[in-house]
Specification:
Elements lengths: L2 E8 L3 H8 L9 H17 L3 E6 L14 E4 L3 E2 L14 E2 L2 H13 L5 E3 L6 H7 L9 E7 L9 H16 L6 E7 L16 H13 L1 H5 L3 H8 L7 H9 L4 E9 L6 E8 L6 H12 L16 H6 L1 H8 L4 H9 L1 H8 L3 H8 L3 H7 L3 H11 L3 H8 L4 H5 L27
Parallel strand pairs: 1-8, 2-7, 2-8, 3-6
Antiparallel strand pairs: 1-10, 3-7, 4-5, 9-10
Helix pairs in contact: 1-4, 3-5, 3-10, 5-9, 13-14, 16-18
């Protein structure tokens, strides 16, 4: 099973990415940043972890306030830099690990962390600013874990520490024999809004660095207001370091630490290696059974296809395509000539064929979720009952005989003049 070999923590200020993009390696004001991250990069090159769980926060770029989640796992196999207003950075994408991410998601949910999941989102400087200094020679895949710390209320320090503990159980129950590093990002002290803008507290930063290593439980007792008083309001994002620390063993060895305050944000790096013996295999197996408990037996239900993370990842492209039917202009283009829209979405021939034929059963078996299929039905004039009958392999009239109100056809389509399509006389 998987094994955590250690973790590292670092700031994720955009200063770091700016220094790289503008070739500041030899500038005295910027050079310490490169030197500090070079030690982390060397450590990763020596340890060669198979995967890194990267804990960070987005800054209102891909995770905005129309739907803001607390703990969000990325399920993709590749991640790209986001456009934060001036165009995306010209740096390489990074390789994800969808299979590991799915396992972590199941495990964290089993441990009663209400996770959200994302696909197809570019990531901003919270993810890529420090990572871009570590990409050279990096062979590990990355699992992003985004923590919502921008809009209050945010998770407490204790909750983040418990998340890390749950993350350790999740990683160590992963059935593949891989090595994993956990990275915590953010901070250190800074405030970037209001009249207190520019606040830093070096004494607190150094105390925090010492306590993360030696007494993380004491840090869990501090409130978010305490963190804001000590390290600035935005500096409170250092609670994410406790998620990294919670994933490590009780006894760790710090092998590297740096601190640099060039301007607005105190930039730190730290590397920790586990000292404790791995958890017994039987405990890991017990946790794996715990992860699978809620859905155990569901696979025996005939004609049932739970929309789990694996199906969501497999069918993300076609589900995205059908979801776009909520947009009037896309609906219009689809009804006029669907073929160019198929090509633009990169649908496979199998996916195109299922949509052309309105093969509802094939679509559901493939991994399409019903709630985008009913949008297709509303668009093309098929009621929900038409879709239900087709999925059961029945003619509509035969399926309707099994209903209590055998004439009740409906769909999610808005009311149109002349009534729904299936009530209109055929030409």
């Amino acid at each position: 099973m998987a094994r955590i070999i250690g973790g590292f923590a670092c700031s994720h200020t955009p200063t770091i990415g700016f220094a790289l993009d503008h070739h500041k390696q030899n500038d005295p004001a910027w050079a310490p940043i490169f030197k500090d991250f070079e030690t982390v990069r060397t450590w990763l090159a020596e340890k060669k972890p198979d995967a890194i769980v990267w804990i960070f926060n987005d800054h209102g770029t891909s995770f905005f306030f129309d739907h803001y989640s607390t703990f969000t796992l990325g399920l993709d196999d590749e991640y790209f830099p986001a456009d934060e207003g001036g165009g995306p950075r010209t740096i390489p994408s990074v390789r994800g690990n969808s299979k590991l991410a799915q396992h972590l998601g199941w495990s964290l949910m089993a441990d009663e962390f209400d996770m959200a999941f994302f696909q197809g989102k570019p990531l901003d400087h919270g993810f890529f600013s420090p990572l871009s200094l570590l990409q050279d020679g990096l062979t590990a895949s990355i699992v992003p874990l985004q923590v919502g710390v921008v809009q209050f209320p945010i998770p407490s320090a204790k909750r983040c520490y418990k998340l890390g503990q749950a993350l350790r159980r999740a990683i160590e129950s992963y059935p593949e024999d891989i090595t994993v590093v956990v990275a915590g990002t953010g901070g250190l002290s800074h405030q970037i809004h209001g009249e207190r803008c520019g606040f830093n507290n070096t004494d607190w930063d150094l105390q925090f660095l010492d306590m993360v290593e030696k007494d993380p439980v004491a840090l869990c007792d501090l409130t978010i207001a305490d963190y804001a008083h000590l390290g600035g309001m935005e500096g409170a994002e250092v609670v994410m370091w406790l998620a990294m620390r919670g994933a490590l063993s009780a006894n760790i060895r710090k092998i590297h630490q740096t601190y640099y305050l060039p301007s607005m944000t105190a930039i730190a790096t730290a590397i920790y290696e586990n000292c404790d013996i791995d958890a017994p295999i039987d405990h890991r197996a017990d946790h794996l059974a715990h992860v699978q408990h809620q859905m155990a037996g569901a696979e025996s239900l005939p004609g049932t296809y739970p929309f789990d993370l694996a199906r969501s990842v497999k069918a993300f492209r076609i589900n995205t395509y059908l979801h776009n039917l909520i947009h009037p202009e896309f609906r219009k283009r689809f009804l006029e000539d669907p073929e160019p829209t198929f090509a633009a979405a990169g649908l496979t021939e199998e996916e195109r064929d299922m949509i052309r034929r309105r093969d509802w059963r094939a679509l559901i078996q493939y991994g399409t979720i019903f709630f985008v299929m009913e949008k297709l039905g509303a668009c093309v004039g098929a009621s929900n009952l038409h879709i239900y009958a087709a999925m059961r392999g029945q003619k509509l009239e035969d399926f309707m005989k099994t209903r209590n109100a055998p004439t009740a056809l409906y769909s999610v389509a808005a009311k149109k003049d002349g009534g729904p399509a299936w009530e209109k006389p055929k030409p």
